[in-house]
Amino acid sequence: MKAVPMSVELPESVMPLSRPALPLQHACACAPASVGNVAVGFDLLGHSLAGIGDRAEVRRIDEPVVRIAAIHGCVEMLPTDPRQNTAGVALLSLRKALGLQHGFELVLHKGIALGSGMGGSAASCVAALVAANALLAQPLPREALYGFALDGEAVASGGRHGDNLGAMLLGGLVLATPDRLLRIPVPAEWHCAVVHPHAVLETRKARAALAGDYALAEFVAQSGNLALVLAGCWNADATLVREGLKDVLVEPRRASLIPNFARVKQAALDHRALGASISGAGPSVFGWYETRAPAVAAAAAMSKAFAEVGLDSDSFVAPVNGPAASLLDTLTDMASA
Q: Which residues, 6 or more positions from 209, have their beta carbon under 8 angstroms from its beta carbon?
């Protein structure tokens, strides 16, 4: 399904859903972390990760504005000017596209550290949109929020890429082109281990490391690897994924930005990973496994490798087929029913 164009008129394919029985005035939503790129799908492929995420509380207000009332959690020094905040820009885009007469007041609760390579900016954006969408007289289908989320993500990274956004909106492994989201089936028993060292790697800096010339052979090799991974997931064929889950295009240019990366990656591979690489822009590192047990063992080994260079870390083990962003609660204004 195509993303919503940034205009008041909506195409029939993304027309709002039916009106709820009672208008909602307040909603709270959470969005999970994610593994962006998944080694072979730069800016295109991502999967959600249970166990950590951001939460957004959105209140419908009469003023035709977007206001960020507060930001709490592990990251507090973020701009409260909605024009400079990923969640704020996404809600501004939503208001403009739908021609809304009312506004939104937002409180963010950050659970994902920025510059972690786990989709911290995207999670705030998606959580805010999911909550705000519940407050509309005619809520939109989930895929129709994608375009607004892209507008928000561009504030943080400087580009409209949806690898993290798609995974958070739909859950699981998602192929995210500029105009379409496609969920890719993954066996339920496949797990991911992600280890986040206590270090910050800004997305813009990580993207700057990619400047320069590339050989055509590198693109051909990466395209082949992406095709193998997608085919392996569709067919539940771990052998195909193991053959293809190798980043020959981006990882070599970013590896030096992550302390002890080679040792951390090898620790993941030593536990029979289907593949391992940088999560998003880094510095987190991930590995895929056919079952949970080796993923747990690998996470401990990867953390130990980061500790070799004096870095504490947090580790997460969860199914590759992770959750989508979801509503936590809503309050209804009974007086206006």
A: 253, 254, 256, 257
State which residues form the domain around 141.
23-181
Do the beta carbons of residue 56 and residue 87 sit within 8 Å? Answer: yes
Q: Would you say residue 120 lies in a domain?
A: yes
Examine residue 170 and state whether it is found in any structural domain, yes or no.
yes
Q: Are 324 and 48 in contact (CB under 8 A)?
A: yes
Among 309, 302, 307, smallest CA distance to 288 is for 302
Task: Write out pLDDT tens, residues 181-200.
Answer: 999 999 999 999 999 999 98
What tokens appear for 113 in the block?
């550290």
pLDDT digits (tens, 9 = 90+) for 326-337: 999 765 443 332
Range scoring the smallest mean pLDDT among 128-142, 192-206, 235-249: 192-206
pLDDT at 20 over 90: no
Q: Which residue, 181, 216, 246, sits at the end of a domain? A: 181
**Domain-embedded: residue 14:** no
Helix or strand holding residue 286 (H, E):
strand 285-289
Which residues touch 89 (CB under 8 Å, ≥6 apart)? 82, 83, 125, 151, 152, 154, 155
CA 134 to chain centre: 20
| DSSP-based three-state secondary structure for 258 | coil
List Cβ neighbours of 213 (8 Å cut-off, separation of 6 or more). none
CB 34 within 8 A of CB 286: no
Which letter does DSSP use for residue 235 in this model?
T
Question: Which one-letter DSSP state was computed for residue 145?
Answer: G
Count the alpha carbons within 13 Å of 332 in the hemisphere toward its beta carbon. 9
Instruction: Please check whether residue 191 lies inside any domain of the structure.
Output: yes
Q: Which amino acid is at 331?
A: L
Report d(CA 297, CA 276) in Å as an integer. 14
